[in-house]
Protein: Alpha/beta hydrolase
Amino acid sequence: MTIYLKAFSFLCVFLFCASAQAAETLRIDSKLINETVTARVVLPESYHHSDSFEYPVMLVMDGSTQFEHIAGNVNFLSTFSIVPEMIVVGVSAKSRIKHFTHTELEGYEGRSGGAELYTRFLKDELLPKLKEQYRISPYTLLTGHSLSGLYTSYLATHHAGFINASISVSPSLWWDDFALINDIKTAEQQAEKSPVRWFVSMANEPNEMADGYQRLMNVLAEKSESVFDWESQQFPEETHDSTPLIANVEGLKSIFRGYNAVPNIEIKSLEQLQAYYGNYQKTMGYKFPMSVHQYNVYGLKAAYEGKLEWGTEILEKGVEVFGQSEILWDSLATVYSMNDDTESAFQASNKALKLARQHQSKYLSEIEAQNADLNGCN
Structure:
């Protein structure tokens, strides 16, 4: 077994996330859409490791059916630095046709065409409420499936000033004789606005669903990257109902392509990591500060690949930013121990143990085991 495989095995044991954190519930009495909306919120597990770190927000349309699996996958993917840690918010609409369509269809007068008003609700009522209660950064991602996938497609093509990224899973592009696609045909670059990062997918679906997707692909292929920043993927083995699980994972990976600075066995110093994310900011139009899991994964990888000084520097910077993180303090104890600095390792491990008990950490048993080992050596 190579050094890397040993390190990877350690990381898998230490970092694996089986489920998302417990959801909190918010109720918003909306004056704009005249509804009481219930939103469920899952915070990153590192949320209480800092008093100032801000997190992107991911709004999940059709939250009653899509929220749990998306929150769990964000938790897992962010643990291994594939995507950023995010605050995930599930929102359910009482009238999907009304809120998720941007044109009023004959026969549906008063019951369709409300997407613009619903967008105002999200922007002017829901997000401010979330910002009052949580540390939310100015980066917003939305995901939707089927009719709400039509809505997130609408946002991606009409509201670059509101959202940064959008995932559209099997969108109902057929609505109103493919009205949204006709809009896209005439779209031009909006001055001083970067296009939304947009992932759109389709399962193995017949008739107007497949027709709408193919029409969209044909139109987007003729547009320059300055107008739309998009990627697409088809899932021929999936049905309309099964596709959200895989499509949201692939959508997240697409939106945040390049986010992981060391995806394989290569390693970087703290200085190189800072330079990498400086360049990534130019690509994304937003600066993603390094999270608990990035400091942890990159620091341990560097240490296990023979660069103890790099690993130590990365993890020491991590505990400087996230002073309440039992994960980082325990990993720092590991690296100090590897460098035969037993006293520093024991102090870091004691700090990790105290925080793990305070947080009722799921990593408590691993942290206790390392502390006991160090206590025997001290």
